[in-house]
Design brief:
Number of helices: 2
Shape: globular
Distance between the termini: 41 Å
Order of helices and strands: HHEEEEEEEEEEE
CATH topology: Jelly Rolls
Length: 151
């Protein structure tokens, strides 16, 4: 009997520890992810939910028209970003962070080829915005957000 009681205390302690760590992670990650700025709410013209359940949220993502920026927003969950790539000239965009930094991503020419999926892993993205400088296609992207304990 004492052995079972010790096991129960250990199990309860592990549950409490894991719960605490999860809450601290969620609390600590909230700083770059303010309420009301989720991509679907803050930038609905470029982010549309096409599927959602308790585990994932799938977004259709598009670029704003040339010369325009989408509103500042964030993606609070890690995700896969999918692009059906056939080559050709890429779009020229500017990625703006909430801190004022700007990363220019110029257009490049890529030889055309049969289509293939390009898949990228993205960590949660704090506040940012995308500006379209030059647009060569009306490509739609897919972002599969993996819902975690983050807020």
């Amino acid at each position: 009997m004492p052995r079972q009681a010790g096991y129960r205390r250990l199990l309860l302690g592990l549950v409490v520890l894991c719960t605490g760590i999860t809450l601290l992670r969620a609390e600590g990650s909230a700083a770059g992810f303010p309420t009301g700025y989720d991509a679907v709410d803050a930038a609905p013209n470029s982010h549309r939910v096409i599927f959602e359940n308790a585990l994932v949220r799938v977004l259709e993502v598009t670029l704003p028209p040339v010369g325009q920026s989408e509103p500042m927003h964030h993606h609070r969950w890690p995700s896969f970003f999918l692009d059906w790539d056939t080559g050709g000239k890429t779009n020229h965009i500017r990625y703006r962070g909430a801190d004022g930094r700007v990363r220019d991503v110029p257009s490049i020419d890529v030889p055309t080829h049969p289509g293939r999926w390009r898949v990228s892993w993205l960590e949660p993205e704090p506040m940012h915005s995308i500006e379209t400088v030059e647009k060569y296609d009306d490509r739609k992207y897919v972002r599969i957000e993996i819902k975690t304990g983050r807020p």
